[in-house]
Amino acid sequence: TQSTWGWRHRHQTLHETNSEKMAQKVSRNNRGNFTFTQSSTFQIVTFAIATRIITIIYSIACDWIVHDHDADAFKLPPNATSFTDDDDNIHWILAAFSRWDSAHFLHVAETHYLHEKNLAFFPGFPIAMNIAGYGLLAPFLSEHLQWRTLLLISGVAVNFVLFPMSAYTLYKLGCIVLNNERLALLSALLFCINPAGIFFSALYSETLFSLVTFSALLALESDKRIGAAILFGISSSVRSNGILNCGFILHYIAQSMFAGCKTKKLLNILVSHIFLVLLSLPLCFLGFLSFQTYGYWKHCSNTDVELNTDVIEFPAWCSSNLPLSYTYIQSQYWDVGFLNYWTLKQIPNFLLALPIIILSIYIIHREFNKVVLIRRPGFEGFLMLLGFTMDKRSSVLYKRLILMKYVIHLLVLVLIASLCMHVQVATRFIFSSSPLVYWSCAAILLPVEESTKTKHKVYIQSIPLPIRNDLTLMINQWFLINFTGKMILIYCFIYNIVGIALHSNFYPWT
User: What is the pTM of this model?
Assistant: First the structure.
């Protein structure tokens, strides 16, 4: 039987190694019949790399096999100098990764916001592309390839390298927040097959944003407030929704203030926490505000002679009381605004976003219900819904409330995606921002491990080593997975298979 095989496997491993450390790895958290000797780090890194290689190969194949759609989208202008044959070959091979917004990011990395419209794309990822291009590729390939080609290669390479780092950071964050290594591991493995997979390999900023956001949350959960604030500030230079991460800092400070009121004088508490707010918030907004300042300097002053014409005409947002380019450009060029997307012709895009919206609402409802069941009256009950007044003496109460800040964050993301954005972006928007989605999906799938006491044998050796891990072993026993878990996995598979094929050929999958 499967259980007999698992016992023999563990017994032989312990006998051969006679190592307490290996024994801990084998029996970690009593994973039961899914257990084998690979460490969590090895599982995460190899699976992350394997899924990226599969995504890249599948994207290239789809681009070659399927004819490109003639999309009404931004196309890169001709290169300033003629491409060599090597340039043409590389652009032909990697064309699948420069579709839709990828073309904007590549253009920004190359021209540094030559056009006002490009200010909608934040500089974090283009900066990373330039660093990789100048530091790693140019010294060896600049004589053979044009700069645009080097940037294309560096963009794909940056995301390839950062993706395993993002998955591993999510795992470490889960270990601290959930206090459950098994759940944290499964969450990180689910991250590797999330439905927005193509956007973590193409020239999009999702991978970098996930890494910085998860790293900031990890620092915050480790009580490193200033480091977290700095990382949140970096996240706001990668994507605009990075400024929402400042809410985690505010929640942390408010939570600390409520807890301190029980033991310290109110005046001392207020002074110390006001100081924390004044120190942390500017750091959180630093990336966003720095970019808006740069945009104003670039397009609202005549110091940049390259942009001057015979008659200088500044953009309309330059004369606003609060001259922020982002909101104006999103509204002017992409018609982004409250309920602007709620039209009949956008129904297909709403259907595309429906799975992640339903999944998010389900997660939010389930987590709020856990708190409501505690039944604390009045103002105390309201504070508990916000995750405050946590009494660590009660382990049950602590576990239920520790996720509330992540629940509120997910709720805000869902509201913004549904009401104020191009709704089809919701999938990558949420899966690159919220660790709670992965934790909740893992919690739904995890009960299958309690049902593995069965006579059905699992042929573990049939799974290739790079993708042999707790998640793939679970999938190998598909009949044991509950209905909701199957729907989540099917959602991941379909959106990756279909999404990669459509996006790679300029079909509307953005």
Answer: 0.87
